[in-house]
Amino acid sequence: MQSIEYAASRLHCSVGGSALKPNDEFRKQPKSFWATVRLVSQVLGYTEPRTGRLRTPSFKAIAGALASVGLNPEHVLETEEVGNSLGLLLESYFVYRAHVLYDLVRPALMTEAGARGEFERVRQTLSRGCPLPMNKQKGPKRAPAYFTCIINILLTEALAGLPCDFDPRKLTTITRDAVPLRTLARRVDGAFPSPINPIAVWEIKEYYYTTTFGSRVADGVYESLLDGLELEELRENEGVDVLHYLMVDAYETWWNDGKSYLCRMVDMLHMEYVDEVLFGREVLERLPKIALEWRRRFTGISTS
Questions:
Q1: DSSP state, 86?
Q2: Which of 73, 140, 269, 282 would staple 66 via disulfide (CB 3.0–4.6 Å)?
Q3: Using CB atoms within 10 A of its CB, is residue 172 exposed (0-12), middle (13-18) or buried (19+)?
Q4: Residue 144 pairs with which residues in a beta bridge?
Q5: What stretches in the chain show pLDDT beneath 50?
Q6: Cβ atoms of residues 96 and 23 within 8 Å
Q7: Where along the chain do its domains lie?
Q8: DSSP for 112-143?
């Protein structure tokens, strides 16, 4: 089995303060590659039951998982003892996925107290007005939606007066020649400059107060997958590229209870259903830079 350190040196993984972007070695793989990733993850489990450590199966374990459900493992093997190029690539991907989750995602996720502190700091240093929504809790837990508020403040500041819809209460529609071309199935959490012909859309998943990893939290990941599938179809069949982002936070929810869904987010990113996934405090550094690119697309001029 490969070590995480080996994968880091071999795959040139970006860690330590860099946002999670797709690795070119994996992003162009066919859907059959991702079918194998998902199936093997299901059969073996995303984590070790006793330790909670993320699994990084070798090509032999991958072949064994396929055989255990009645499938022919020969497509990942050169011989019984030697993996072929696909088997080794799958092995490398599982190690890579664990590597970025441990070294990039885990330290970026914030607790409720950490998010509250960052919100207070950002609110004091960036004073431009913007929506600061409250969470959906009641009683003592009723408070600003810290992560969403941080995102709104950062975008408002970076977009410097350009229009932006921080809470679209309508479906996203793409038009051509004043005629609807596509209307997405669900509402997104934000759209720039608007949900009509947006340059970018995003989803925010912050769950600081959940006590169990329930279906509502899991559904949040699948909602982003649905958006990504529709935007992929739009891009491939109509040549319209809408940037798509997923931003998530809450250490307890995602790291302690939902590692398998973090794995799915890394998979989704490399399947190109999202352009970037931003975890926790990564938004502080990365989101203003992303917004500058949106401004370039909107104005057609450099903002550097």
A1: H
A2: 73
A3: buried
A4: 134
A5: 1-17, 302-304
A6: yes
A7: 4-108, 161-299
A8: HHHHHHHHHHHHHH--------B-S--GGG--
> How many other CB atoms are found less than 10 A from the CB of residue 230?
20
**Which tokens belong to 131?**
């929506």
Distance CA 292, CA 302 (A): 9
Report the distance separating Cα 152 and Cα 130, nearest Å: 7
Cβ(198)–Cβ(191) below 8 Å: yes
- Beta carbons of 135 and 143 less than 8 angstroms apart: yes
First-to-last alpha carbon distance for the chain, in angstroms, is 46
261 to 47, 190, 214: CA distances (angstroms): 11, 22, 12
Tell me, what's the pLDDT at 5? 41
Distance between CA 46 and CA 57 in Å, rounded? 10
Q: Which of 98, 29, 14 is nearest to 58 (CA)?
A: 98
For 50, 171, 203, the CA distances from 234, given in Å and listed in that order, are 43, 15, 18
Q: How many CB atoms lie within 10 A of CB 182?
A: 19
Query: pTM score, two decimals?
Result: 0.89
Place of tokens 């810290």: 146
Q: pLDDT (tens digit, 9 = 90+) per residue, 139-161?
A: 888 889 999 999 999 999 999 88
- In this prediction, residue 129 carries a pLDDT of 78
Burial class of 225 by CB neighbour count within 10 A (0 to 12, 13 to 18, 19+): middle
Determine the pLDDT at residue 128: 67
CA 200 to chain centre: 15
The pLDDT score that the predictor gives to residue 302 is 47
Place of tokens 């949040």: 220
Instruction: Count Cβ atoms below 10 Å from residue 14 Cβ, excluding itself.
Output: 15
205 with 248: CB under 8 angstroms?
yes
**pLDDT tens for residues 17-41?**
456 789 999 998 999 999 999 999 9
CB atoms within 10 A of CB 267: 18
DSSP for residue 56: -
